[in-house]
Specification:
mainly beta; 2 domains; eight-stranded antiparallel beta barrel; five-stranded antiparallel β-sheet; disordered N terminus; signal
């Protein structure tokens, strides 16, 4: 009986001790930081952000390429043009045959399945020029987005060197039908993906392609050395509205220069054949390059870039290698030290509020943002929470729900940076620079491409800074203090 009473007394004492431990910031040594969100919350740690220019990126070997011109009252103007090589209809020599005469020529520019930013109802005037030089031997280093490609503006008989133009609205999601030539049969209508079809001057194509002769059409290298290539630019004086940035797909096999021509039948001289020759434009076989530029004159962005030491109420993030945010936690270590004792971070969230009134159509906020750091050499590196494990390197700190997607309900972005922040506190990681930038919505956060300055996204966002009273960047830290 005494033993039973002792057991009951022990149980009651144990329950009393357990119930008295109400401060979750001083217990929890067994908490699993990956699953628990227990502990005391701090959300007042200073977070500094500043707008900085992003770096030029390579546009070599992309599947989609930006093109257009957009006027944004907050971000100024952005412009993208395209230089492209043109291949022969086959890898072998091409022969137009006897007495070939061009009927018409069309430059086919298929839209990418995901990618338009701006006002599609604006009027876009697209000019086609001939490149001054062959870009196939330029090398990947030459295809940075800040690289310009010279084109001919003094062609005889062509004002400003323009031999092709499309003027109208854009419909990136609307397929339609075109007439297809059927050899030995009746031409028929066929459905094609959404695209822009730019009519080219047939006399120019006759003189600069058909009349080159077989010696210049023996292979792609000889052909591009003679023809050079094409250049697309937006004619701003003939365009109206806010504009936008569209994306063309140069990897799907449907981007091409179509030349419709008549020639003498190879067996019966009195018979004339109508023929279509399709000259491919493919980033997988020949260079295609994008040139991107931004003009922030008269905007708050220009002010922030020229005086970067000031903390502003809002900061700016923009795709197309525009601007990004540099972010830091200058008082994190001293703040935690003042708590006394060692701190284990159970969860850390970086929350970025969209600045109020900056998501007005057609300038919608970026769908996805990227968060990364840099190493000692300045190379971009995924933070610890976003380093996906491989077959040879494990990473128990990796989070598949790392974050970065836009929350349309709360109008913010959230990143989970628990391991990164803990590593900073423990001195295992040195902050050589932490950045938040735009990202392509089609790129997984843990991929290496995620770290590159975005060329395939023109989205932009205005973020409330730490000192902003209503919309601000905030660091939520759930921690356990170890006695």
């Amino acid at each position: 009986m005494k033993f039973k009473r002792l057991d009951l007394l022990t149980l009651l004492i144990s329950l009393f001790i357990f119930a008295s431990c109400k401060n979750s910031s001083t217990i929890g040594l067994d908490l699993d930081p990956a699953t628990a969100i227990q502990g005391k919350l701090i959300d007042s740690v200073t977070v500094t952000t500043r707008t900085v220019a992003d770096q030029p990126a390579t546009s070599a070997g992309l599947t989609t390429y930006p093109f257009g011109y957009i006027t944004d009252p907050t971000f100024g103007t952005s412009e993208a043009s395209i230089a492209m090589s043109v291949g022969l209809p086959s890898s072998a020599a091409y022969d137009f045959g006897t007495n070939a005469v061009v009927d018409s020529a069309i430059l086919v520019l298929p839209y990418a399945t995901s990618g338009f930013y701006g006002d599609s109802t604006s009027t876009y005037s697209i000019d086609v020029h001939q490149l001054k030089s062959d870009i196939t031997d330029a090398g990947a280093a030459a295809f940075k987005t800040d690289k310009s490609f010279a084109y001919n503006t003094t062609l005889s008989g062509y004002p400003d060197g323009v031999f092709g133009n499309y003027t109208g609205s854009v419909k990136p999601n609307t397929p339609f039908k075109v007439t297809a030539i059927v050899s030995g049969g009746i031409d028929t209508l066929v459905a094609v993906p959404a695209q822009i079809r730019v009519k080219l001057d047939k006399a120019f194509i006759q003189n600069n392609i058909v009349n080159l002769g077989t010696a210049s059409l023996i292979n792609n290298a000889t052909f591009t050395n003679n023809f050079k290539g094409l250049h697309l630019s937006l004619n701003k004086s003939k365009s109206t509205g806010k504009g936008g940035i569209m994306y063309f797909n140069f990897s799907g096999g449907t981007s091409q220069l179509e030349v419709y021509f008549k020639r003498q039948n190879s067996t019966t001289a009195t018979v004339v054949d109508t023929v279509l020759a399709s000259f491919p434009i493919s980033s997988s076989t020949a260079p295609v390059a994008a040139t991107v530029s931004h003009n922030y004159t008269g905007t708050d962005i220009a002010k922030q870039l020229s005086t970067p030491t000031v903390q502003y109420q809002s900061t700016y993030i923009q795709g197309l290698t525009g601007v990004r945010n540099k972010i830091s936690f200058p008082y994190l270590a001293s703040f935690i030290k003042n708590l006394g004792g060692k701190v284990v971070i159970n969860k850390a969230e970086l929350v970025l509020d969209l600045s109020s009134g900056t998501d007005i159509a057609p300038f919608y906020p970026a769908t996805v943002l990227a968060l990364y750091t840099t190493d000692l050499a300045g190379a971009r590196v995924n933070i610890l929470d976003n380093q996906a494990p491989t077959t040879s390197v494990a990473n128990p700190n990796y989070l598949s729900n790392f974050g970065g997607g836009y929350d349309a309900t709360n109008k913010n972005y959230t990143f989970v940076i628990t391991s990164y922040l803990q590593s900073l506190l423990d001195g295992k990681t040195v902050d050589y620079g932490t950045y938040i930038g735009a990202s392509s919505t089609s790129i997984l956060p843990s991929s290496t491409t995620y770290l590159q300055p975005p060329v395939t996204s023109a989205d932009r966002s205005v973020i409330g800074a730490f000192g902003n009273a209503t919309n601000k960047v905030k660091l939520n830290i759930y921690y356990t203090k170890i006695n």
